[in-house]
Amino acid sequence: MVLVVSQEVREALGSGRPVVALESTIIAHGLPRPRNLQVARELERAVRQEGAVPATVAVLDGRPRVGLDQEELERVAGEDGIRKLGHRDLPLALAIGASGATTVSATALLAAGAGIRVFATGGLGGVHREWTATQDESADLGLLARTRITVVCAGVKSVLDVPATLQRLETLGVAVAGYGTDRFPGFYLSDSGHPVDWTLRTPEQVARVMRAQDALGAPGSALIVANPVPEEEQLDPELHARVLADALHACEREGVTGQAVTPFLLGHLVRHTDGASLDANLAAVRGNVRLAARVAAAWVRA
Ligand code: PSU
Ligand code: MN
C-alpha cells in the first residue's frame, strides 16, 4: 500500500475509535496565509474536542499521507509551489515526487483507501455557472458517485450553479440530506434558495443511513450531509450577491480557467467583503468538522 497513514490514525482505526478526514486544498488554496495554518490547527483541535482523531490528507514529496504531524501541516499551509491535486492528479504527483494539497475528490479517495468513513470540508465543488461554454464541473461529483464515504459540508460553493449541481448529484445517484433543515445550504449562506428532499436530525440517524448504504451494497456512492452555517454567522445575502457577480466578471475578464477558477473566486470574495466571507467560510467549516466528529462517533458505536 502506498498510503502513509500516521500512527495515531492507524491506531484509532485499529481500535475502533472515531476518525474524521480533513482536506488540505481549503488550507493551501482556499484561505489566505498565514491565517490558513491557524485554521488547519483549529480544525484538528475541534475534531479532538469532540472526541475523534483528525486525519488531514495531503501528498508530500510524492507520498500520499493520511494524518499529518505539525511540521507536515506547516508545509501544506506555507510551502511555495504546493499544488492542488484532484484525484486524477494523484498518480502523476506520486510518480514525480510532487507535493500538493488534496481536493475533496483526492481526499475522499485516499481517506476511503485508509478505511476512514467520515470526512468534513467547507463546500463541495460542482457545476460552474457558464457550464455550457466551459464544461467546468468539479471532479468532486464523479468521485463521490463511486466512493463510499460520508461528507459533511455546507452544501456546494455558492460561486457554482447550485441547482445544476443538485441535478448532477441526482443523476449520479449521490445521496443528499440536509442536517436539521429541508433547505439546501448555500456555503456562505444558510440557505441556497433550493430545497433538499431529505432531512436528518441526529448523528445517530446519519450513522443509520450509512449502515443502510452498506446493507444495500453496490454502488459504493457517498452520502452528503449538508449542514448549514448558523444564520447569525452567514454572509449578508445582499453583499454576497453583489460581490459574487463582480467576482464572476473579474474571472471572465482575466481569463481564469481550470483549477484556478475556484481559488480565484474565493479569494476575490474575501478581499471584497472585508474578510466577512472568510468569517462565514470558517464558521461553516467549524460546524461541519464538529458534526463530522459526532457522526464518526455514532458510526463506530453503531
Ligand atoms: N471548500 C472550501 N474551500 C475550498 C474548497 C472547498 O471551503 O477551497 C476546495 C475543495 O478542495 C474542493 C475544491 O474539492 O475546492 C474544488 O475545486 P474545483 O472546483 O477546481 O474542482
Ligand atoms: Mn473546475
Protein topology:
Elements: E1 4-5, H1 7-14, E2 19-22, H2 25-28, H3 35-49, E3 53-60, E4 63-66, H4 70-78, E5 83-85, H5 90-96, E6 100-102, H6 104-113, E7 118-120, H7 131-134, H8 139-144, E8 150-153, H9 162-172, E9 175-179, E10 183-186, E11 189-195, E12 199-200, H10 203-216, E13 223-226, H11 237-253, H12 261-272, H13 276-301
Parallel strand pairs: 1-4, 2-3, 2-7, 5-6, 7-8, 8-13, 9-12, 9-13
Antiparallel strand pairs: 3-4, 3-6, 10-11
Active site: 23 (proton donor), 157 (nucleophile)
GO molecular function, one term: hydrolase activity, acting on glycosyl bonds
Enzyme class: lyase
Spell the H/E element sequence. EHEHHEEHEHEHEHHEHEEEEHEHHH
> What is the count of helical runs?
13
Helix content bin: 40-55%
Architecture per CATH nomenclature, i.e. the level-2 architecture of the largest domain? 3-Layer(aba) Sandwich
InterPro entries: Indigdn_synthA-like (IPR022830), PsuG (IPR007342)
Keywords: Glycosidase, Hydrolase, Lyase, Manganese, Metal-binding
Binding site for substrate: 84, 104, 138-140
Protein name: Pseudouridine-5'-phosphate glycosidase
Describe the structure.
The structure is a single chain. The chain has 302 residues and is an alpha/beta fold. It has 2 domains: 1-116, Indigoidine synthase domain (Indigoidine synthase fold), CATH 3.40.1790; 123-302, Indigoidine synthase fold, CATH 3.40.1790.10. The protein has helices spanning 7-14, 25-28, 35-49, 70-78, 90-96, 104-113, 131-134, 139-144, 162-172, 203-216, 237-253, 261-272, 276-301; strands spanning 4-5, 19-22, 53-60, 63-66, 83-85, 100-102, 118-120, 150-153, 175-179, 183-186, 189-195, 199-200, 223-226. α3 (35-49) runs antiparallel to α4, α3 (35-49) runs parallel beside α13 (276-301) and α11 (237-253) packs across α12 (261-272). The model has no long low-confidence stretch (mean pLDDT 96). Homotrimer.
